[in-house]
Design goal:
single chain; four-stranded antiparallel beta sheet; elongated; 5 helices; mainly beta
């Protein structure tokens, strides 16, 4: 006869199972993965090609970053915890330093956690009685990630995230004020004591390290064919926009056309300087080459065809047409040496073409959803790709071997941008955040909530970063669904520079000087802003004339 389990022990059993799940539910960050199967063409001779001849000279040597991030250094161990009752958690002033473990977090843990997670009884190998022990993690690995609250298993458990065992088990969530304190402690770098050292990686930037050789005569339209502007009853949204790295020149998507706006005098006032036809369909991405000589346009007709066209910026001539897709090309980029063009498609594929032969060199199957962004590193040796499911991968260009899988976003990645020295990659997504990735090891150094606001109506969305861009001096530019244009310091901290749009801004880029900003909006407008002495809107241009 089987005797029913004594119900007195049921809560204890559930608690133990939850702890074991926590110990083994520890997602990695920037882990190296085994290379996926990649189809490679044997016709990849690497010989100098017509497009390669137009590439810029080698970039200047990159300076070394002042970074002591080779390994994560644990914060100093706080004073030994005694058996005395803890003092209540101190309130944190709005302008105060980030909370620390000893004063703000330990009282919360003593009240709710330390009974089962202490030095004498560390269930699942997790001890929360000291800062050093908490950083050591559980038997399954780390439970805290400095600066990344939403990726820290401990925080996800105490907030009762659906994918993690709830802690404390069979009890309500902690008070909102306590959860906020824990979140801010993680975001601030897991500081142990007042005045202690943050475990956040230092993000610095030497402006000379990212400099590239400026062409003697930056490419600017000179003898473009006379192409009349297409007019529409309703201005199409600016789905794609690119700024030349050396000239005051902006390329904007129009109705089956690329519209060029530039300024050759010191006034910086943008005027229409030419139009390039794109009869292949709608344009979804535009990119200038690193030396500014070439412009590529990617797009097509949905569920029918997709192409990439390479233009000569000075003459407007079509140098090459690449790809023969069965759906639109969502994103494309060209390597710094002009040897390769990479594309991302709704078929979940990344394809790399040789510009010399036009042949497919690599066909990469790794993404689980539409590939929304592809971007070569400044030196062209690596390729970052992202998808509609939040996945980001970094590849070696020549071999198509995977370098990193970057796992932080869980929703559509809308934009990627490399810092000019190639040491940092920024990703932006519909979760309202942008993440700064250290390309030394694929570590997420910062995760910043940039554009997140409460929806005004049931069917509207106010959360999401729609574009991100680095300036040559390391500053960061973002636009989002909250209709704000925001400027950030090189380390990801916010500046006071913010500008609101009356309509949704879809694209944002720095012009070559770094003191001018261009944005493209949902209603087809090109807007320019100056940063001297503060962010101020300068002009608004209706990109596509409206027909009656």
């Amino acid at each position: 006869m089987i005797t029913p389990m004594n119900t007195r022990f049921t809560p204890l059993l559930i608690h133990s199972i939850a702890l074991l799940l926590l110990a083994f539910t520890l997602p990695g960050c920037g882990e190296d993965k085994a290379p996926e199967a990649v189809e490679s063409s044997s016709d990849n001779t690497g010989q100098t090609a017509t497009l390669e001849d137009t590439a810029a000279q080698e970039t200047a040597p990159l300076g070394e970053r002042n970074d002591n991030s080779d390994q994560q250094t644990a914060a100093p161990d706080p004073d030994v915890v005694t058996s005395a009752e803890p003092s209540p958690s101190k309130p944190i002033a709005a302008s105060a330093a980030p909370p620390n473990f000893q004063e703000h977090v330990l009282p919360i843990f003593k009240k709710h956690c330390v009974g089962c997670h202490n030095a004498d009884e560390s269930e699942a190998g997790l001890d929360l009685s000291s800062s050093k022990a908490a950083l050591a993690g559980s038997s399954g690995g780390s439970v805290l990630k400095a600066g990344l609250s939403d990726s820290s298993p401990l925080y996800l458990s105490v907030t009762h995230h659906e994918d993690y065992p709830a802690m404390p088990p069979e009890k309500p969530k902690l008070a909102d004020a306590d959860l906020k304190t824990i979140r801010e402690w993680i975001a601030g770098g897991l500081i142990a004591t007042a005045g202690g050292k943050s475990n956040l990686r230092e993000v610095t930037f030497d402006i000379s390290a990212g400099s590239m050789q400026r062409p003697e005569e930056p490419a600017f339209p000179e003898s473009l064919p006379d192409v009349p502007l297409a007019s529409t009853r309703v201005s199409p949204p600016v789905l794609a926009m690119a700024c030349s790295p050396w000239a005051k020149l902006v390329a904007v998507s129009g109705h089956h056309q690329v519209l060029l706006y530039g300024a050759q005098d010191s006034s910086g006032k943008l005027e229409h300087v030419g139009t390039l036809p794109f009869p292949e369909g709608d344009i979804h991405d535009l990119r200038f080459s690193r030396n500014g000589d070439l412009l590529i346009a990617a797009g097509g007709i949905g569920a029918e065809s997709g192409k990439v066209v390479v233009y000569d910026v000075k003459t407007g001539g079509r140098i090459a047409t690449l790809g023969d897709e069965y759906d639109i090309v969502l994103s494309a980029d060209i390597s710094a040496d002009h040897k390769y063009v990479a594309i991302g498609t709704p078929a979940k594929l990344v394809k790399i073409f040789s510009t010399r032969t036009g042949e497919l060199v690599h066909r990469i199957k790794k993404h689980t959803d539409w590939v929304t962004v592809v971007r070569f590193s400044p030196d062209g040796k690596q390729l970052a790709t992202a998808d509609r499911n939040g996945g980001i991968h970094v590849w070696e260009t020549e071999s198509a071997g995977i370098v990193y899988t970057l796992d932080e976003h869980k929703v559509k990645v809308t934009a990627l941008s490399w810092r000019v020295d190639g040491k940092l990659l920024a990703s932006a997504a519909e979760d309202g955040k942008f993440v700064l990735w250290d390309m030394k090891d694929g570590w997420a150094t910062r995760s910043i909530t940039a554009h997140a606001a409460k929806a005004r109506t049931r069917y509207s969305r106010r959360t999401g970063v729609l574009d991100i861009a680095f300036a040559t001096d390391g500053r960061i530019l973002t636009v989002g669904r909250d209709r704000l244009l925001r400027l950030w310091n090189p380390d990801g901290s916010p500046t006071s520079e913010v500008a609101e749009h009356s309509t949704l801004p879809l694209r944002a880029q720095f012009l070559s000087s770094g003191q001018l900003i261009a944005t493209g909006t949902f209603d087809g407008q090109l807007r320019t802003f100056t940063l001297s002495p503060k962010m101020t809107q300068r002009a608004t241009i209706e990109t596509v004339p409206r027909s009656e």
